[in-house]
Target: Carboxymuconolactone decarboxylase family protein
Amino acid sequence: MEFPMTQAIFPIHTLDTVRPDLRENLETVKKNNGGYIPNLIGLLANSPAALETYQTVGGINRRNSLTPAEREVVQITAAVANGCGFCVAGHTAISIKQIKMPDEILQALRQGTPIDTDEKLDTLAHFTLAVIQEKGKVGDRLLEEFFQAGYTAESALDVVLGVSLATLCNYANNLINTPINPELQPYAL
Model:
């Protein structure tokens, strides 16, 4: 699906097109990403406040009570639920390269199917999806299942935090159908 008008209105900025006050920010992103700027960042550079929110909340999310693998479960579950191919590809790359997530877990997440090999992560994915679909109103039964799997009140709120970060990214990408960078293409659905 192409969105030529929205991509003209929302250019994906590069070091050559970004506002001067954001250039150093994008240079850092490029350096930290092995020499490329993810198109999501180029898109968010159209709004300095959106870019700052993404980077600030992303940093906070990396410090939450969930493990790195659990944080990726939340992000991929949200990306699949929200139909964001860019974020599925990006978080698949993170899950493979940084987290070393087992392939059977990663494929279940990408397909939106149960995680048969890890009951705790399956509970997390199910809870995350319910948070999204029910706008947080998951009910006592699902919350109790989440706690019985070993999660806490802090974990539940950290899922909401992760969903909020994913919502910003997923919806921004969906707004213009952000093209997936060549570096992320091997991880696309």
